[in-house]
Q: What sequence folds into this?
């Protein structure tokens, strides 16, 4: 017999991905409809790209303007479909997210990943701020009631650094080549537009 | 007031695309559910790639094995979702489709596009045969009750050649960068996995 608790759903993200941000706005609705909570797994998109030789759409399609335009059209469609009002493309894109991703690992170790993700995603993609700057990151965390100075200090801890590397390597070993990525059990989906399939698989496993 | 007749749906295809073949197996079900018939538009994928500087996934992801593996996973998922039993990857891929695409234009001019598409798609992706060879193409058409010799001869007609070029250029001008592509009115969708969105848009326009 399956139950909502027995279904494992994961959301692999990097704050640098606008499509991860948009996915993060939709996941709470999926959790409400299915009763299954997603585990948020911070991984480094730059590390995934390096390991798989993949590139961001902005880079890969730089010479294919109609393909890039279509990516942007599908972004607008996703935003319209889900009634998303808080999104602005970060003018500092691409943003080096190494420190804020390490901060996410530290926050997760402290059991504070959810408020950390909310605060940083909002600062990156709703406000949007130059979040590669440690001072900007720190004040965004402070403003959200988190301890920015302490989290920033933790980004230099070897266990935090090592955890982010290990989780990124594990994602690559499981077939991840870009973000956002989703797992239900060991089944992989890539991209925000697969969230419907992800939800269907969660429902299928719950009723199995 | 809208009606099924007032909604314009188009399916842009090239026989060289396995995902166009798979889409073609699903479109009849969408037509049955919505009452809206798709116009099949033959266009040259090679011409689209050349004009947009895009490449096939097999080529573009040759150095990104996990991305290519994911493409193949999504192909298997589509096949399973739609209960498709007749599909074999053509061992002669990539196939030069210039002649058989011109043949499709000639067949369309004769009002025989539907049986032509059925015969050639089946020969390409179900049997599958080396369809770049004119003799193979001719006998596949003959076997389907079409006049292979006459259609093959028509591929040298200037009006046939010109029509295929014009339809390909028009597709590029409308934002197409790959196949399969779909239009509902002037709204573009790319790829077999967008057929759900295409169907939703058809239904939305019918009830508008």
A:
């Amino acid at each position: 017999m399956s139950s909502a608790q027995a279904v494992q759903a994961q959301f692999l993200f990097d704050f640098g991905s606008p499509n991860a941000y948009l996915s993060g706005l939709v996941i709470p609705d999926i959790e409400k409809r299915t009763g299954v909570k997603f585990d948020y797994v911070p991984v480094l998109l730059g590390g995934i790209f390096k390991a798989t030789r993949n590139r961001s759409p902005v880079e890969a399609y730089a010479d294919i303007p109609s393909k890039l335009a279509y990516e942007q059209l599908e972004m607008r469609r996703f935003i319209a479909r889900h009634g998303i009002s808080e999104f602005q493309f970060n003018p500092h894109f691409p943003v080096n997210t190494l420190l804020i991703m390490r901060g996410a690992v530290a926050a997760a170790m402290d059991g504070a990943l959810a408020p950390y993700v909310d605060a940083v995603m909002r600062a990156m993609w709703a406000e949007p701020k130059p979040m590669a700057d440690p001072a900007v990151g720190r004040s965004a965390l402070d403003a959200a009631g988190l301890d920015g100075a302490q989290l920033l200090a933790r980004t230099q801890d070897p266990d935090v650094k090592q955890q982010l590397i290990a989780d990124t390597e594990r994602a690559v070993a499981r077939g991840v080549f870009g973000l956002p990525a989703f797992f239900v059990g060991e089944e992989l989906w890539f991209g925000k537009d697969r969230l419907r399939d992800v939800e269907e698989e969660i429902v299928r496993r719950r009723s199995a």
About this structure: The mean pLDDT of chain B is 95. Chain B is about 55% helix and 10% strand. Strands of chain B lie at 9-13, 38-42, 181-184, 187-190.
